[in-house]
User: Fold Heterodimeric geranylgeranyl pyrophosphate synthase large subunit 1 from Abeliophyllum distichum.
Amino acid sequence: MPISHFSPYHIPKTFIFSSISVSAILTKEEQEESKSIFNFKAYMLEKANSVNKSLEEAVLLREPFKIHESMRYSLLAGGKRVRPILCIASCELVGGQESTAMPAACAVEMIHTMTLMHDDLPFLDNDDLRRGKLTSHKLFGEDVDVLAVDALLLFAFEHMAIATKGVPSKS
Assistant:
């Protein structure tokens, strides 16, 4: 739905998908306000949950399991999902649908996540924690993490190429 026509009917305090949760407290004033004007917080929460659901469906646990587990661990660890939401909002702004933008939005988040995984490796920042959880290389090992970083980058482009539907190749 285009941003200009956004009007949520019901805004729960917590949007939940599987083990991924984006939470916010909407005051009564914010809930009332959202009925008449665009509510940025509600929009961000709704789209973040759509992105989380799509990411979980996109990156399945399959062979090689350790690499895919590392990819999923980092990708589904949470975050505000600002980059994919901007991708979706840009599409909606020109009259497109969320479903059309979702493959590109997921690819953007996959690329962002792989840069964070790469940055956390011992030969760069050597971070132990990201978003309050152990970094992927601490949990799965540096060797698996390096392969997961490469795989996630390649998978982002594969996902966008295969999953994108309804977008003409030329304008």
User: Anything to note?
Assistant: The helical segments are 28-36, 40-58, 65-75, 82-93, 98-120, 136-140, 142-163. The CA atoms of residues 107 and 155 lie 8 Å apart. Residues 1-21 have pLDDT under 50 and may be disordered.
